[in-house]
Amino acid sequence: MKATRHATYNLNYHIVWVPKYRNSVLVNEVADRVRTILHEIAEDKGLEILDLTVQPDHVHLFVSSPPKNEPALLANWFKGISSRKYNHRYADHDSEKIGWARGYYAGTAGHVSTETVENYIQQHKQDES
């Protein structure tokens, strides 16, 4: 369970996206660089990467985020910032650039037990007293 000033949350998103034309470009050094950049983005945005798999033709990202960030924003950050950073740092020629296909998959994952809800309610009852 995580908390901000005004919220207690357990929001985890599974986001999957593919390179343009589903080309198998995410291998070896390219995959390592993309992994590093995705971790940089998470750190910069205050997110926690729970799991990350870079396959030759797609990326699986499992990330925890505060409630203020909607899944579409997360996908846009990771896809947009990663391609810009990668292309700026490593692509000397257009053929070396990374581009992502327009779409993505986003799913939610998390579990709230009855005990968690009861603890939350009790905490707020005590805060009001």
Automatic annotation (TrEMBL):
GO MF term list: DNA binding; transposase activity
Q: Which InterPro entries match?
A: Transposase_17 (IPR002686), Transposase_17_sf (IPR036515)
Q: Which SUPFAM superfamilies match?
A: Transposase IS200-like
What are the Transposase IS200-like domain coordinates in residue numbering? 8-124
Top-rank taxon:
Archaea
Which BP terms from GO are recorded?
DNA transposition
What the entry lists under Gene3D superfamilies is as follows: Transposase IS200-like
The record, for NCBIfam families, names: transpos_IS200
Protein name, UniProt field: Transposase IS200-family protein
Could you tell me which species this protein originates from? Halorubrum californiense DSM 19288
